[in-house]
Amino acid sequence: MPTYLSRRTVLAGAASTLLIPNSAFAVGRKRLFKVYRGGSEVGRHSVEATAAGDRLTVKVKVDLAVKILGITAYRYTHRNSEEWVAGALHTLTSDTDDDGDKAYVRLTRGDSSFEIDAAGYTGDLSLEAAPTSYWNHRALEAPVWFSTQSGTPLDVNIQKAGEEAGLSRWSVTGEAAIDLFYDDQNEWRGSRFDGKGEEITYEEVESGPKFLALL
């Protein structure tokens, strides 16, 4: 099923808590999408996770380029790395180039809060906050989100909005506006977003074994 995403929130869902198996060896999963804008391919978006023991590493990679008459009119790159230990987010590092506008996030876990140094916010944030990487269904339970692009805390309202093509659709409104799609095993399968009047669609080209089997 095609799914949709805006150019400025091409990021992937996680929550403040999750269970990680105590495996003695590294196990990995990858989800890869082609990204289309108006029917033309504009890039790729991947989310890759590796689990070893009680540590889970999740890496998000986004590369987009919109071309007009063969000339690149818009370019977006995003790199995000999350480290989870014993079920808790411990660090998050991201760097983004939004057509020349640079942004970053440097997050570490403290005793009672996250400490963030980022392009859009510097300070403390509740340990219950979820990053906007969307890969984990439990982000839907978090009381607040923060942008993995800018670090900005986001006040959101989240409601289940029915089903489309066999996938559960969750509607996010407030300081983030996006539809998120998950399958019956809570695997993230894509998003839909108004990209300033343009629909940007996802086509899944690689998923392998169930992504959340690591959790």
Structural class: mainly beta
Q: How would a crystallographer describe the biggest sheet?
A: 11 strands, antiparallel
> What letter string, H or E per element, gives the SSE order?
EEEEEEEEEEEEEEEEEE
Unreliable sequence segments: 1-26
Q: What percent of residues are in strands? A: over 45%
Number of helices: 0
Count of the separate structural domains: 1
Write down how many β-strands occur, each being a DSSP E stretch of 2 or more residues: 18
Cα distance, first to last residue? Answer: 25 Å
Radius of gyration computed on alpha carbons: 16 Å
- DSSP helix fraction: under 10%
What's the pLDDT, averaged over the residues?
83
**Morphology:** globular
Task: Write up what this structure looks like.
The protein is mainly beta and 215 residues long. The protein has one domain (3-154, 194-209). It contains no helices and 18 strands. The protein has strands spanning 3-4, 23-37, 40-53, 55-68, 71-85, 88-98, 101-109, 114-118, 122-125, 130-131, 145-146, 153-154, 156-164, 167-174, 178-182, 188-192, 194-195, 198-206. Strands 1, 2, 3, 4, 5, 6, 7, 8, 9, 17 and 18 form an eleven-stranded antiparallel sheet that branches. A four-stranded antiparallel sheet has the order 13-14-15-16, with no helix packed on it. A hairpin with a 2-residue loop joins β4 and β5 (71-85). The radius of gyration is 16 Å and the shape is globular.
List the helices and strands and how they pair.
Blueprint: E1 3-4, E2 23-37, E3 40-53, E4 55-68, E5 71-85, E6 88-98, E7 101-109, E8 114-118, E9 122-125, E10 130-131, E11 145-146, E12 153-154, E13 156-164, E14 167-174, E15 178-182, E16 188-192, E17 194-195, E18 198-206
Parallel strand pairs: 10-11
Antiparallel strand pairs: 1-18, 2-3, 2-18, 3-4, 4-5, 5-6, 6-7, 7-8, 8-9, 11-12, 13-14, 14-15, 15-16, 17-18
